[in-house]
Amino acid sequence: MYQKISDPWKLLEKNKSNLNLNYQVILNYCEQIRFSKTKTLEIGCGYPQISYELYKKKFIVYGSDISKTVIEKSKKKYPELKNNLYVSNFINFSLY
Fold it and tell me: What is the pLDDT along the chain (96 residues), one digit of tens a residue?
């Protein structure tokens, strides 16, 4: 999908001005359960907008997606996360 359509679910477009309500709920929940050096993994991250927001809040973040294309694009869009983004199927337990 990401090879032919740059934003197939229009998530980047919808979140240009502000994160949508679902993202805000997730971010608020993460803030409430934060522990020292909390690590998070966003499985099926696509463009890892949630991971990036958590990164800005000093979380240690990782993201995985089955699409090599979107991970390559995400590494360019979010260079701070490039070493923590992986092409992987969600049942690849060795990654976790």
Answer: 788 888 877 777 766 656 677 777 888 888 888 776 778 999 999 999 999 999 998 899 999 999 999 999 999 999 999 999 999 988 877 776
Residue 96 CB neighbour total at 10 angstroms: 11
Helix, strand, coil % in the chain, rounded to nearest 5: 40, 15, 45
Q: Which amino acid is at 11?
A: L
Question: CA-CA distance, 66 to 58, in Å (whole number)?
Answer: 26
Q: What does pTM read for this prediction?
A: 0.72
| Tokens of residue 15, six digits | 């979140």
Nearest to 55 by CA among 22, 78, 73: 78
